[in-house]
TrEMBL record:
This is cyclic-guanylate-specific phosphodiesterase. It comes from Plasticicumulans acidivorans. Its EC number is 3.1.4.52. Transmembrane segments: none annotated. Residues 590-723 form the GGDEF domain.
Length: 999
């Protein structure tokens, strides 16, 4: 290939073109100049001839003499024509080079016609071609020939042939053009040679150097041939190549060290023993980093010396031949990089070992082995420096900032690996059992071929399977060929896995859940390879059953997060669950309770009965704690006799107090162990999120402090963390305890509010309302204790008492001959869902002897809206008993009225919120409820009627029954009996019924 063809063409061709243009211009200019010069010469000669003839004509009077002069001058070379014309009347030729023209009139000579019409010089045609004609007026003495000698005007005509002169000029021009062309050619050749030597050859040399460099010749440099711009470019290029070589060497060094780091990380993952890990690290570092020596030294037991633990590299004798390196900083070797790195915990770099004073004890050996740079990096494990990694390089300044960072990261990974190895030792027994199990499995597995099958990627049909696959999945060969890949995968995974394999063109390794013919599943490690099979696009699947390994990993996972003795979550899982519970509570705006429990005097059990009995006691405690909690709560063993309970999504602090009391009561139950009856107790502290802390550590700490407060208070008790919460919780729990005592001591009483017909005031029934006759607080209204009773579950027992008491009281009034009117009793949702409700109602009716239609049960909309089978069966059974059913507070809870079709209720009770302050809007709502009841054939009654105007409006709207302060307040049984007596009298007398007296 011609060097730099494009550059030569682009430089030399324009240069040649310029030379040709310059030469042509010079030749053209020369030709123009010679042509002008020729014209000037001819014109000067013509003028000279004309002037000489004119002068002669002015002095010569003899025509012969003038003719001889014309003939003489006309004989000169190039002169074709000389004519002297006298302008006499008529004009005539008096002298001419052509004798036949003399004496003739010039007008008669056709050849003179062109000359007579013009004056001065002009081009004309001659005998031999182009000529120059010149016509000049001239005064002459020669007259008409009659002896007149005065001056007569005349004309001298001259015609000179140009051919000879032009031929001479052409020859001269050609000679000059040849000279210019030759000079131009020589100039171009000289310029081309100069360009070749000073431009093309240096550039070609640079190009060849770059091509050699591109071919891999790293030592090639561009020659600097001349001290000019191209030479400067070559010099700069060489400098750039030097820098690129240095950078390339640096990048290669980093690449090697990155590869070493990657290999180190893989080695760390596989490492099981520190010494083997150290040996591999040294080997990897020297092999990948191309270093002459790498060694790792560990501190001896007395921390006095660094002992070489692993070493690798061609210069291993450099360190192996030396005695252990002392750590004493007062000794020379104790001042060296390895010792200083180990003592200071910082990397020590010596990039000029032969002059570094720290490496003075090794200067001679370093010079002998060709060591120029050293670096020592501390290796930390367990919070302290236990070893040092030392590396050696043959070039100075090898360990720059990037290299040091990579090697520092390597030593940090080594320390991390050592920490993991120490941690792994804690699980050695479990891992040994697992390895034994896996070893037995592998031996059994290796004795049999792995299941293999091939399937068509387009149709998903199975094309081939080996015996192991048939046996594993329970299919025959004929059955197998009719299957598709989807039939071997569970329905929830088949589509996604098949699509993933369809779009994957490379080898893959994934875990699948596969399905046998009998419907059972197995977890398998599936290796997939694309291949062509019988002209089809197929994949080969290799199946490795890992079900046993998955189970073992699950067991290990369980052991890592649970207490081995009790099976409860350990501290790790506790912290994780507590953080999750706090996050959920934060989003939902609820509380989290943390209970810290500690057994009282557990050490006495261990010391007196032994640790085996103590362990069994802890197991029983764990079981009892589980029985006290909800499904979503967590109980954990921290260690020893300490337990922690997490109560998620609690509403009030008192809920945590109730759980604490339940736990205390459960733990206090006697326990038989080793034929001994043990009585145990525990102290319990309670902390609440967000009241007592916003994070897991704070809550655990505060609950622990509260537990110690409980121990200081005498044990077998609990305390809240804050005094304010503690006081409020104790107050509510005291109130709850009072409710239990009130049930036992008969402190509840019933008051009865009349229900009347609005039109005439006829008594149509009572609503039984419970009151608590508190020994200290007096008569407590239901809004203070009913919510507590519902939260604590006492509402069931309280509701049973209310139903039984109302039935007994009504039956007593009937036996006294008083009017038979129904008594309405409210049922709470908790009471309604309780399994004993039906037995309670049936038993109360049977025991009291009250007719079922004299008992009315008021249900809330929330009860009926559940609309499940249990609710429907319960309502149906109550209706079969004959009791009346009404819906209390109708219209306040739900907008769906579909339940009215499913449940056989008798009456709707308009909530007092619609009655109180009736206005246009409430008129619409009340009218709608009344119309709905009438259309469904149900009764309707309004509660909360306090004024006569409200009663009137209700009656106008179609509601005929009501209760409220306008007709009567809730009355004790004795006063309610008086109302019944008054009603009885009016009925007997058939007197007009008047509204009841307001109380």
């Amino acid at each position: 290939m011609t060097p730099l063809p494009s550059l030569r063409r682009r430089l030399l061709l324009p240069l040649a073109l310029i030379g040709v243009l310059l030469a042509g211009s010079a030749i053209l200019l020369a030709h123009v100049a010679f042509s002008a010069h020729l014209h000037d010469q001819l014109l000067a000669r013509a003028r000279q001839l004309a002037d000489s003839l004119g002068d002669a004509a002015e002095t010569i009077t003899d025509l012969d003499t003038l003719q001889r002069l014309v003939a003489a001058q006309g004989a000169a070379e190039g002169v074709e024509l000389l004519v002297v014309i006298a302008d006499s009347d008529p004009p005539r030729i008096i002298a001419a080079t052509r004798l036949g023209w003399i004496g003739r009139s010039p007008m008669a000579v056709s050849e003179l016609g062109e000359l007579l019409d013009r004056h001065d010089a002009f081009d004309c045609h001659g005998s031999h071609g182009q000529a120059l004609c010149y016509s000049a007026p001239q005064a002459m003495v020669i007259g008409s020939g009659d002896g007149d000698t005065g001056l007569t005007p005349g004309t001298v005509l001259v015609r000179i042939d140009r051919t000879a002169l032009e031929n001479n000029a052409r020859h001269t021009t050609l000679a000059l053009s040849a000279s210019i062309a030759l000079a131009t050619l020589l100039l171009l050749l000289c310029s081309a040679r100069l360009h070749r030597r000073r431009v093309f050859e240096p550039l070609n040399a640079i190009r060849l150097a770059l091509e050699q460099r591109a071919a891999g010749a790293r030592s090639t440099r561009a020659p600097v041939l001349y001290d000019d711009e191209i030479g400067h470019v070559a010099d700069c290029l060489n400098g750039m190549l030097d820098r690129l070589d240095a950078q390339d060497e640096h990048l290669q060094r980093l690449a090697r060290l990155y590869a070493a780091l990657s290999e180190t990380n893989q080695t760390i993952v596989r490492a099981r023993e520190p010494e083997k890990l150290f040996s591999e690290i040294c080997r990897i570092t020297t092999d990948f980093g191309q270093l002459p020596l790498a060694w790792i030294g560990r501190v001896d037991a007395r921390r006095e010396y660094i002992v070489v633990s692993a070493c690798h590299g061609p210069d291993s004798d450099y360190i192996l031949a030396q005695a252990p390196i002392a750590l004493d900083p007062d000794r020379p070797e104790g001042f060296g990089p390895p010792a200083r790195a180990l003592l200071s915990g910082q990397a020590q770099i010596s990039n000029d070992t032969l002059t570094d004073p720290r490496t003075a004890p090794w200067h001679a050996r370093a010079r002998a082995f060709g060591i120029a740079s050293t670096a020592s990096f501390p290796i930390r494990s367990g919070g302290q420096t236990i070893a040092v990694l030392s590396l050696y390089a043959r070039s100075a300044h090898f360990f720059d900032g990037d290299v040091v960072r990579l090697l520092t990261e390597t030593t940090e990974d080594i320390g991390f690996a050592l920490d993991n190895l120490l941690a792994e030792q804690a699980r050695a027994e479990a891992e040994t059992a697992l390895r034994d199990s896996e070893l037995r499995y592998r031996r059994l597995f290796e004795a049999n071929p792995l299941p293999l099958w091939v399937y068509d990627r387009d149709s998903q049909t199975l094309l081939a399977a080996n015996t192991a696959a048939l046996e594993t999945f329970g299919y025959g060969q004929d059955d197998w060929r009719q299957l598709t890949l989807h039939q071997l995968l569970p329905a929830d995974e088949s589509q996604s896995l098949a699509e993933a394999l369809e779009h994957e063109n490379a080898d893959s390794e994934t875990v699948w859940r596969l399905q046998r013919r009998d419907g059972s599943t197995l977890f398998a490690e599936v290796h997939s390879y694309p291949l062509g099979f019988e002209g089809r696009r197929a994949r080969l699947l290799l199946i490795h059953d890992i079900s046993a390994r998955r189970e073992a990993e699950a067991k290990l996972e369980f052991l890592a997060n649970h207490d081995a003795l009790t099976g409860l979550p350990n501290r790790v899982l506790l912290n994780d669950r507590l953080r999750q519970t706090i996050n959920i509570a934060h989003r939902h705006g609820t509380r989290v309770g943390v209970l810290f429990l500690d057994l009282d005097r557990f050490k006495v059990v261990n010391d007196s009965l032994g640790h085996a009995v103590g362990d069994r006691l802890l197991q029983h405690v764990a079981q009892r704690l589980r029985s006290c909690l909800r499904a979503g709560d967590t109980v954990s063993r921290l260690g020893g006799d300490e337990f922690v309970v997490i109560l998620n999504e609690i509403g009030e602090p008192e809920q945590a107090g109730r759980v604490a009391e339940k736990i205390l009561a459960q733990i206090a139950q006697p326990l038989m162990l080793e034929e001994r009856e043990l009585h145990i107790s525990l102290s319990l502290g309670i902390a609440l999120f967000p009241d007592d802390g916003s994070d897991a550590d704070t809550l655990l700490r505060h609950a622990d402090l509260a537990m110690y407060l409980a121990k200081e208070a005498g044990r077998s008790d609990y305390r809240f963390f804050t005094a304010d919460l503690n006081a409020r919780a104790l107050e509510r729990l005291s109130f709850e305890g009072g409710l239990r005592a009130a049930l036992e001591h008969g402190e509840f009483v019933l008051h009865y509010q009349p229900q009347v017909a609005i039109a005439d005031g006829e008594l149509i029934g009572f609503e039984a309302l419970v009151r608590w006759q508190h020994p200290q607080l007096g008569l407590v209204p239901p809004n203070r204790f009913i919510p507590i009773a519902e939260d604590s579950g006492l509402i069931v027992a309280l509701g049973e008492w209310v139903i039984e008491a109302a039935c007994r009281q009504n039956r007593d009034w009937q036996r006294q001959g008083l009017p038979h009117v129904p008594i309405a009793v409210n049922l709470s949702a908790v009471q309604f869902r309780h399994r004993a409700l039906l037995a309670t109602v049936a038993g109360a009716l049977a025991e009291s002897g009250l007719a079922a239609d004299c008992l009315e049960l008021e249900l809330t909309e929330s009860i009926l809206m559940q609309a499940d089978r249990v609710t429907l069966d319960t309502v149906s059974y109550l209706k079969e008993l004959g009791v009346q059913l009404s819906i209390d507070d109708f219209g306040t809870g739900y907008s769906s009225l579909g339940y009215l079709k499913r449940f056989p209720v008798d009456k709707l009770k308009i909530d007092q919120s619609f009655v109180r302050g009736l206005d246009a809007a409430d008129d619409v709502i009340v009218t709608t409820i009344i119309g709905l009841a009438h259309n469904l054939g149900l009764g309707v009654i309004a509660e909360g009627v306090e004024t006569a105007e409200q009663a009137r409006l209700l009656l106008e709207l179609g509601c005929g029954e009501a209760q409220g302060y306008h007709f009567g307040r809730p009355l004790p049984a004795t006063e309610a009996r008086g109302v019944l007596l008054h009603e009885n009298e009016r009925r007997q007398l058939s007197a007009p019924r008047l509204p009841l007296t307001r109380h």
